[in-house]
Amino acid sequence: MKALGIAATGMLAQQTNVDVISNNIANANTTGFKSSRAAFQDLIYETVRREGSLTSEAGTARPTGVDIGFGVETAGTVRLNTQGGLMATENQLDLAIDGRGFFAVNLPDGGQAYTRDGAFQLSSEGQLVTMQGYELDPGIVVPDNTTQVEISEQGVVMAYVGGDPTPVELGRITMSTFTNEAGMRQLGSNLLEATTASGDAVPANPGDEGIGILRQGYLENSNVNIIQQITDLISAQRAYEMNSKSLETADQMMTAANQIK
Amino acid sequence: MDNSTYVSLSLATAMHNALDVTANNIANANTAGFKGERVVFDSYLHRETGVDESRNTEFLIDQGSYMNPEQGAMSRTGNPLDLALQGDSWFGYETSDGRTAYGRDGRFALDPNGALVTLSGAKVLDAGGAPISLPPDLGGEVSISQDGTISTLTGGVIGRVGLFDLPDLQSYERIGSGMFVPPEGVDTARPATSGTRVVQGMIESSNVQPVVEMTRLMAIQQAYERALKLVGGEDDLTRDMLRRIGSVT
After folding, report:
1. Are B62 and B39 in contact (CB under 8 A)?
2. Using an 8 Å Cβ cutoff, are A178 and A201 in contact?
3. Cα-flanking dihedrals φ and ψ of residue B134, to 5°?
4. What is the rounded distance in angstroms from the CA atom of residue B106 to the CA atom of residue B204?
5. pLDDT of amino acid A17
6. pLDDT digits (tens, 9 = 90+) for B75-126
7. What is the phi-psi region of residue A65: left when phi exceeds 0, alpha when psi lies from -120 to 50, beta otherwise?
8. Neighbours of A48 (CB within 10 A)
9. How buried is B166 (Cβ within 10 angstroms: 0-12 exposed, 13-18 middle, 19+ buried)?
10. Region B54-79: what's the mean pLDDT?
11. Which DSSP string corresponds to B97-110?
């Protein structure tokens, strides 16, 4: 009886589903967070009777076979890369990307990561850094006695230093894009890294064709749709219960078989 | 031993398979593009030789299973590369081992070269049977119309998702991952003419209906227990017979 194992794969899949949904709900207020969904697919089939096999010497063939599946598996978690809502913060170092693209960030171990979270701060050296203290790449250094920083939609950073009424250009914030953004790996702390599935980072300037623009004083909210998550949660729970019923039925049938004699 | 035990046993065995198929349907109740499977039963007539025909015995066998091709409900995901089909046509895929397969699972993604692939990595085919590729700089931001035409957001046509009609659908073999392959050598698929619509940003949910599957579970369990009761009853009869004959001697 395979039903026990099949029901187990179903319950396992729904557990994964609930894990993914809970993580989405937990991150509903995380800046730049993209919601994921667990995607399932059916496992291989055992062909008990093969379709097309001969049923007589005259050449008549079986029109359908008996295919018994082995349950379900998680094919992957698919990240939904849609734009999150923009939230005004009035903080001059907060940047939201309106459109495609990621900020590149230098990790302390020398690697590079990418993020949509533009809540930047200044380090003790005046470097523009993320909340974890990782430097933005290419680096922007804000001089000591800066009174105001202006960042254009195209990423050009200007600073008013001291009492000087003409601003100085500090540099330009660039972005990275990927062929398959859904293939990037999540590192936590709002960071993602490139993988062979995503392809290599393609540098771009904000405001280029097809690339997002920067909005100073805004943060990008998560794109989690709470109502969708709650309905998915309900359906995951019911699916879990249904699978436990198959398990129970298989169990009771085995008990009945044991009681014949 | 008497035939009646074996007749009951044929029912119990068939119910085993039916339970496995139902459990698989339930396990895939949340699998996009999944089509439920049903077992069909048949009788197998065993002719007694040399005796009159009224003593023939009929056994039960599960002759085949068929796939329920009914439309599944649409569910919104918002992902531009998720496609649902409304109608009877199927998507075409090229599996990693080079076989052509068909399925209703429209949860597509891009590989690093920009080819449109399923979540299990099979390439999605256009109407001519060639894999579809998107320009890498678009990053999946495309618009897909109801007839499957893929275009950039500014209106440049890139290609068209192939839709196929499968006339003898039931003879196709299920290979998992939502894919069906044609029986050896006879691919009867032809470009769709049935007016199926492609809906972007949606997926077609599994067409498994929980109530139906639950009822089936109960029916299977009862039939199984009935069969076992018959076996048990037959056993009691034999034992009783042996006891009585034994007491005479």
Report:
1. yes
2. yes
3. -105, 150
4. 8
5. 95
6. 988 888 999 999 999 999 999 888 999 999 999 988 888 899 999 889 999 9
7. beta
8. 16
9. buried
10. 84
11. TS-EEEE---BEEE
Whole-angstrom distance, CA of residue B106 vs CA of residue B199 = 10
Of B188, B194, B192, the closest CA to residue B164 belongs to: B192
Who contacts B56 (Cβ-Cβ below 8 Å, separation ≥6)? Answer: B45, B46, B47, B48
Nearest to A223 by CA among A63, A19, A1, A28: A28
Chain A CB within 8 Å of residue B96 CB: no
Chains A and B form CB pairs within 8 A to the count of: 225
Residue linked to tokens 């894990």: A19
Q: Mind telling me how many Å the CA of B96 is from chain A's nearest CA? A: 15
pTM over 0.80: yes
Q: Which two tokens stand for residue A193?
A: 């890294």
* Contact predicate A32/A116, CB 8 Å: yes
Find the closest chain A residue to B201 by CA distance.
A80
**Cβ-contact B227, B9 below 8 angstroms:** yes
Q: For residue B192, what are its two tokens?
A: 């769709």
CB contact under 8 A, B107 and A48: no
Using the Cβ of A228 and the Cβ atoms of chain B, whether some distance falls under 8 Å is answered with yes
Q: Which residues, at least 6 apart from A126, have a Cβ–Cβ distance to it below 8 Å? A: A141, A142, A143, A144
**Most B CBs within 10 Å: which of A2, A47, A64, as the mutation test of the B interface?**
A64
**pLDDT at site B60:** 83
All residues at 6 or more sequence positions from A40 whose CB lies less than 8 Å from its CB, including other chains: A13, A17, A72, A73, A74, A75, B28, B30, B31, B32
**By CA distance, what is B223's nearest residue in A?**
A253
